[in-house]
UniProtKB/TrEMBL annotation:
Biased composition (Basic residues): 8-25
Superkingdom of this protein's organism: Eukaryota
Keywords: Membrane, Transmembrane, Transmembrane helix
Transmembrane segments: 79-101
Region called Disordered, residue ranges: 1-49
Taxonomic source organism: Triticum aestivum
Name of the protein in its database record: Uncharacterized protein
Length: 108
């Protein structure tokens, strides 16, 4: 029930924004730029109200965004790391044994 109300509220809000944007662009004949040039129109570097809301929404989304950790991928990465460490250790011990068998302990 609550989800339906929220979804309805979001739809109504986005539809009103879309229709307001279309109405404005039809009146002026062209859509407004997302970021105005400095020194034009709204003062030195000031953004229109709708651009400010877009920028703040984008920044708040970035602040809330956290990468989702794939536990299976992290576990697999750790297993592969330790497996490679064991393989490398076995190879080094094998080379040492080969050296000792080939040349004997006199070379040490």
């Amino acid at each position: 029930m609550a989800r339906e109300k929220v979804a309805k509220w979001i739809r109504k809000r986005t539809m009103s924004r879309k229709s307001a944007g279309r109405h404005r662009s039809k009146e002026s004949g062209a859509s407004e730029p997302i970021l105005p040039m400095s020194g034009s129109g709204n003062g030195a570097g000031a953004l229109p109200a709708h651009s400010k809301s877009r920028v703040s929404a984008f920044l708040s989304m970035l602040m809330r965004w956290r990468p989702r950790v794939n536990v299976l991928a992290v576990l697999c990465e750790h297993v592969v790391y330790h497996l490679m460490w064991v393989v490398e250790s076995v190879v080094l011990v094998g080379r040492l044994c080969f050296f000792l068998m080939r040349f004997g302990f006199k070379q040490l």
